[in-house]
Structure formats: structure tokens, C-alpha cells
Amino acid sequence: MMTLQPTSERALSHAPVMLTEALAGLAVRSGGRYVDATFGGGGHTRVILERGGVVLAIDADPAAAIRANALRESLDEPDRFTFAAGNFGEIGAIARRSGFDQVDGVLFDFGLSSFQLDDPERGFAFRFDGPLDMRMNPAVGESAADLIARISEAELARLIREFGEESRARQIARGIVAARTREPIIGTARLAAVIEAAVGGRRGAKIHPATKTFQAIRIAVNDEIGAIERGVRDAIELLAPGGRLVTIAFHSLEDRPVKSIIAAESAACVCPPEQPVCTCGAEPRLKRVGGSKRSSELEIAHNPRARSAVMRVAERLPGGKRTDREDR
Ligand SMILES: C[S@@+](CC[C@H](N)C(=O)[O-])C[C@H]1O[C@@H](n2cnc3c(N)ncnc32)[C@H](O)[C@@H]1O
């Protein structure tokens, strides 16, 4: 078994979520080939490597690439680890380019790493003041500040409602648009203050009134739901028969597309329910492995972020044809 350099205190504070469950879900074996689509701090990758796996890790964040280089340098067998910078929405092309096809497992641990949340410069958190950026890769696409400066009030309200599941979306959008006409909103603290004022203060709320809006803007800036849909569909193509798909989601918006793709790909027939005879000829490509799983109480006690985690596991079946209706 390969030896790894001692885990730093910093890495310990960024504990991988549902690690034991993810390894069991992937059915990691020595010599198996795995794609970790969300490298982050490398918590899951490290342990797959320790178990003898061969790993292609992907992350859009340039800071994750630096951590991946450091990990590679610490390995006795660096050839078992490859890192590719990129968006997991293009996991198929990235993996094939890196020589990973017909793999034994693909892991997605969605959302943000604590490295990103703890860095004021990235603009994901409102507990510090920082530039309103929120891009997974700050070199690609439009920042949150630019998005907020550009879109209409109606569009802003829609995205806050849809991606933040925020019932006060119209009120908040109105407040943001009024504030931006006075002065551009370019910092996290100002945006949080504008939102708080728009909803009339905290009034004993359990979470900060800006929480859902920050989530919504982050999801929109990074097209997170689109990337999940494309990434999970592509990952199914990459799996060898018997290969495992494992996803860890932190809210229903992330989990919902995964759930529906797995359901469609596990269905024997996708004909409309009112049709008496099956004509679709679909064959399932996936088999669900257990139901959705939650973190243990013990893990939640040590890592509060684990509280909202939901894991899904599915196995690639031999043969099978695409079964989702949109593609037929
Ligand atoms: C929750 S963290 C992963 C933590 C990791 N499993 C660990 O144990 O350290 C999620 C990571 O996914 C990355 N990410 C999010 N969306 C992405 C996307 N569409 N493409 C590539 N990476 C993405 C983020 O940059 C972040 O580093």
C-alpha cells in the first residue's frame, strides 16, 4: 500500500463528506480506475489512492490544481494519479482525453469546498467582505458582480426564487436593483446588507437573510445545475459494466437532476404511462444501489457540513440503451 505524507492540520479541517459511504458506493478496489469529478481538497481522491485505485481527478478551480500538484508530489506512485483542470460538465471529453474511458467509478461531491468558502477573495461567503466573484474558475465567465449589474429585476427575481428557493425573491430583487442604481454592488458585505435591508432585517431568522440569495447567484454564475445534468449523463457513458456512479448533493436543487437521471436510466420502459403496449424498446443502463443515504450522526457531530449531504449510488448495467425521453 502506498504511503502518503502526514495530513496537514489544514487538510484535516476540510474533512471529506461521507468518505466511508463513498468508498463503499464506488466499491474501490486495487487497480480499479476512478474519476473524482470534484477534487476540491483531494479528501476522497487520497483515500481511493490509498486503497490502490488509479485516479483521474477534475476540478474547475485553479486553487484545486495547486493542491493536486502537491498531492502528486507526495505520492510514492504518482503515475496512479492524474489531475485535469476543467468543468465536470465536460467530464466525457476530459476523461477520454486523459485516457480514462470504461472506468470503474465516477464520484461527484457537488458544491463548494471549505477552501473556497473560507477565502474572502472568492466572494462565496458573506461572513467576510470580499469581491463579489463566486466563479469556480475566476478566469472563466461572468462574475457575480457583473451578473448583478447586468440582469433585469424580473430575471434576478426569477433566479433568486428558482436557485435559492427564496419566497421573498421579488422583494430582494427590487432592493438589489434600487441599490445598484445608487452605486454598483461589487462586494459581498454590501450585497448581504442590501438583502437584509430589503427583507426588513433579520427578525430572529435562523439563517442570515442573504443565505438563499447567495446560493442562487452562485448557482447561476456557474451554471451549476446545467453542469450537473451534463456531467452525470456523460459519466454514465464513461462507466464500464459494473462501474459505479456516486453523487453527494447538499441541497435538493443539486440532488433533483441526479435523482431524475438515475430514475430514467433505471427504467425498463419510458413509454407514456397511458400507452397500453411498450414500443420504446428501452433497456435500463443503470441499477440503483440502495436508496438515498445520509451522513451518520457521528460524522455530523464532527462536521456540520455533512448534515445536509445526500448520497446516491447507481451501477452501470451491461448493454442497455438510452432511456430518457428527451433523447428519443
Ligand atoms: C465539495 S468540494 C469537493 C471536496 C472533495 N471531495 C474533497 O474531499 O476535498 C467541490 C469541488 O468541486 C468543484 N466544482 C464545482 N463545480 C464544478 C464543475 N462544474 N466542474 C469542476 N469542478 C467543479 C469545486 O471547485 C470544489 O473544489
Characterise the protein shown here.
This protein is α/β, with parallel strands linked by helices. Among the domains are: 1-33 and 99-111 and 223-258 and 266-288 and 310-328, no CATH class; 129-221, DNA polymerase, domain 1. It has helices spanning 9-12, 19-26, 43-50, 62-74, 91-97, 114-117, 144-150, 153-164, 169-182, 188-198, 211-221, 224-238, 252-266, 297-302; strands spanning 33-36, 54-59, 81-85, 103-109, 239-249, 286-288, 293-294, 310-316. Helix 8 crosses helix 11 and helix 12 (224-238) runs parallel beside helix 13. The termini are far apart. The relative contact order is 0.13. Mean pLDDT is 92; it is low at 1-13.
